[in-house]
Amino acid sequence: MTPPRDLGRRLLHVAVSAAVTGYAIALVADATILSTNVRDIWAFTDWLTNFAGGFVRRGFVGEMVRVTAAGGPAIGVIHQLIFADALAFSILFGLLVLARTGRTFVWITCLLCPGAAATMAIDIAYFDRREIVFHVLLMAAAIPSVLSIGRSWHQSSRVRAWVFAALIAIFAIGPLVHEAFVFMAAPAFLLVYMAMFGARSDRMMRDLSVLYALAAAGFLVAVAAKGGPDTAASIWGSIHADDRAAFGGDGSTPTGAIEAIGWSLGQGLDLSLSVVQSGHWVAWAAALIVCGLVALAAAIELSAGTRPGYLSGVFWQALFVVLAGSAPLYVLGWDWGRWIVASFIQIVIVTLSAPAADATHASDPRADASLIRAPDALATRFGSSLPVTVKIAVVATLVTLKIPECCLAADAPFGAFLALPARLERVLGSIAAVLGS
Questions:
Q1: Which helix (H) or strand (E) holds 243?
Q2: Phi/psi of residue 401, each to 5°?
Q3: Please, what is the angle between helix 104-112 and helix 4-31, to 10°?
Q4: Exposed / middle / buried, residue 133 (Cβ in 10 Å: 0-12, 13-18, 19+)
Q5: pTM for the full model?
Q6: Contact of 54 with 231, CB cutoff 8 Å
Q7: Which residues of 208-234 are buried (b: 16+ CB within 10 A; e: fewer)?
Q8: d(CA 409, CA 406)
Q9: CB under 8 Å to 245, separation ≥6 — which residues?
Q10: Cα atoms in the 13 Å half-sphere on the side-chain side of 182
Q11: What are the backbone angles phi and psi of residue 285, rounded to the nearest 5°?
């Protein structure tokens, strides 16, 4: 029987999680399906990229939007699509956090971390970007891993075949959604698959190789189909006049992500180089380190009481593989905040979805699911809880920290990362609006 104190804590977690998730969904709904405004021209025009000018990278989703709009304005369709993505993400992430975080500190850290439903909604950022699709699919892929806890699903050839087939479909479609899938999401999917079925087997190595080769092939196809000015003009001409007018200007010239179709590799490298030349890379590096330390603190607390070294190995592997896998993105584009947040939330998902392994699961092959090992001193640290002062510092950091999508101010780059006043204003303003209605 669950002790009354533990039951009370769990019920509190459920109630607060439901309230926070519901609040986040309401904020996203207000910014999408209940709005006619365009929050971010780049994000919206990215969703409108279609095949009107021929096969082109990122055109798959935009073509579905165009077909759904049936010749009419598509901004409403995009709002519905963004809301559906954010809704699925918020619910799945909330359930994953509740299912795997019995410890209050880990639970709070996950609710407040960069890229979580609440922070995205309050900051009005990231929920309209395509990587949310990858996060939703990643959590869907992690469901069998979570459900397999206490069961022997990992020993079933049929379950493994179904999971592998689902991943094949995701790895085939992912690059059509965004060509950066191979860097932005593929490593995390491979880690979830490896955690569920164990890492050290020839079959696993073959499966991982096939999946990653498929994602890499998709990336190369997308790069080859980058389009050009004529493609951009054709796409722009296929968009309803009301949509073009909503993006400002005279509506006759492609703008935003559609304008960027056909940009050369050199242009992308120039954007990344500008981040380095401006010195803003220091601020982004600091943000990445802070996020890594927050994830480390949560992983230490999550691991306390489990089989020594198991979750620590899962975390270190996720940290290394996801960050290393996403490294090319910092060279290919300047949306460094997007890459940081996408990596951070995937590390959280991968670590939470790893099957539990305590002393009673020592013979479980998944208990050896990590190919990367931490130094003994660090692995030992994963066996006990964190000091209260460290936990307070982590929570205070998360309440204050916001990761901008890109493009820091020239005179005060670090100011963009301090979000507490804006968040308080946003929360209090929304509460006042509800009470005043």
A1: helix 241-246
A2: -80, 130
A3: 0
A4: buried
A5: 0.88
A6: yes
A7: beebbebbbebbeebeebbbeeebbbb
A8: 10
A9: 251
A10: 20
A11: -65, -40
Cβ contacts of 334 within 8 Å, gap of 6 or more? 271, 272, 274, 275, 406, 407
Q: Per-residue pLDDT tens for 27-38? A: 899 888 988 888
The tokens 């993505």 sit on which residue?
Answer: 85
The answer to whether the beta carbons of residues 48 and 113 sit under 8 Å apart is no
Site of tokens 């609040």? 23
Map tokens 């019995």 to a residue: 102
Residue type, 172: A
Question: Could you identify the residue written with the tokens 């909503």?
Answer: 246
Contacts of 248 (CB under 8 A, 6+ apart): 41, 255
DSSP labels, 407-419: ---SS-GGGGGB-
Using the predicted structure, report yes or no on whether residue 2 has a pLDDT greater than 70. Answer: no
| Tokens 């940081």 found at | 340
Angle between helices 41-48 and 75-100 (to 10 degrees): 100
